[in-house]
Amino acid sequence: MAAEITKESKKRLKEFEKALKMMSAGKHSEARQTLNELIGKADEDPHLSAGAKKYLRICERKLTEVSPPEKGNPEEHYDQGVYCHNAGRYKEAMELFQQALKVSDGDSGYIYYAMAATEARQQNADKAVEFLAKSVEESRENAFHASGDPDFRSLSSNKQFQELLESVTKE
């Protein structure tokens, strides 16, 4: 026996269709809100609830995706790399920082600093110190920043790291 279609179920179905149209238009944040509201109301319709949950996961994924940076703009690559670093997506962050280096106009100390921080977070001490040294070559201030930056905590007992920081403070 087929389930009876009530005014409420028609209303929920229209809300679901509205959310799908929002997703098609790239309005994933609005669609997420509508789908969340729908899931709270759709307990008596397991198929609609399951569909809403599936599309909610798609919205969540779309909202956390990083769009490709503009070619030739190191700041966009850098900013997206920082976003990925902060999200714990270190491999992706390093790729974006490397792209930023390729298109940078020579001012790359901040990029090397971010690369050093990313390597330090991954416990790659040698690479972290190497990138930090390049960063410090461009701006001595980066050594002072690194001394208090939580990203470099894993290097606090690393001899090369300590020597690099000491060499800058002695000058």
Observed structural traits:
single chain; 171 residues; mainly alpha; Serine Threonine Protein Phosphatase 5, Tetratricopeptide repeat; 2 domains; 73% helix; 0% strand
How does this structure look, described?
This protein has 171 residues and is an all-alpha fold. It folds into two domains: 8-64, no CATH class; 74-170, Tetratricopeptide repeat domain (Serine Threonine Protein Phosphatase 5, Tetratricopeptide repeat). Helix content is 73%, strand content 0%. The chain has helices at residues 7-24, 28-41, 46-64, 74-86, 90-103, 109-121, 125-138, 141-148, 159-170. The mean pLDDT is 86.
The gross shape turns out to be: elongated
At CATH level 3, the topology of the largest domain is: Serine Threonine Protein Phosphatase 5, Tetratricopeptide repeat
Largest sheet: none
Query: How many domains?
Result: 2
The topology string of helices and strands comes to HHHHHHHHH
Low-confidence stretches: none
Rg to the nearest angstrom? Answer: 24 Å
Tally the beta strands: 0
For the record, the CATH architecture of the largest domain stands as: Alpha Horseshoe
Helix residue percentage: over 70%
